[in-house]
Amino acid sequence: MSVSWNPWHGCRKLSEGCRHCYVYRQDAQHDKDSREVRRTTAFNLPVRRTRDGRYKVPPGEMVYTCFTSDFLVEEADAWRAEAWEMIRIRSDLRFFFITKRIDRLMQVLPPDWGGGYENLAVGCTVENQAMADYRLPLLLNAPLRHKLVICAPLLGPLDIARYLTPGIEEVSVGGESGNEARPCNYDWVLSIRRQCVAADIPFAFHQTGARLVKDGRLYRIRRPYQHSQARKAGIDYKAKR
Hints:
Blueprint: E1 2-5, E2 8-9, H1 22-28, E3 38-39, E4 62-65, H2 77-89, E5 94-99, E6 120-126, H3 129-141, E7 146-151, E8 168-174, E9 184-185, H4 186-199, E10 203-207, E11 211-214, E12 217-220, H5 226-232
Parallel strand pairs: 1-4, 4-5, 5-6, 6-7, 7-8, 8-10, 9-11
Antiparallel strand pairs: 2-3, 11-12
């Protein structure tokens, strides 16, 4: 089971992968400015209790965290200490967030961090070779118990073999969504898969994107089918180790 927790909403575009951000698209439909980072009414969701004293989010849930912002965005610095504390208190939950700001992690960790919270996994997002070469060394050196690489939206071929150490628990790949999505070439996806297999690192193809190039042909894939079509490719890899 899983639950979404967005303690704050909104983000500033940071790199090329942000150009067609889905949060900006969704907010635009409601005349909202996605550049405004604001604390949400769901801020304390992990520690909310029912009338009989039980947590509303039951133990064992996977909590997808801050998927309408970036957990490490600068504008949320004033609120993050409370968020860290809720993650620490709810050690019976599994939290997961992705970030393009792995270079800020060391600046904003809580005092009791140590080697990291066991119940938190962090995915570092990279969209092209330049961002992979900048962000992934920082991810490898970060004091995190669980590290993932998220190649999305994949905008070009990636050589990440040098970063696929045993500390990486999974590499997940996806194309870009939206009407203005840039094409994702299936050959790029297969190349990353080969690198993962060679390093015996789990690999997942989680989303085709709206425009997928395969065998020289451009396929336009509607949003409802982008995840299912990726799964249908049958190329996910489970490590042998």
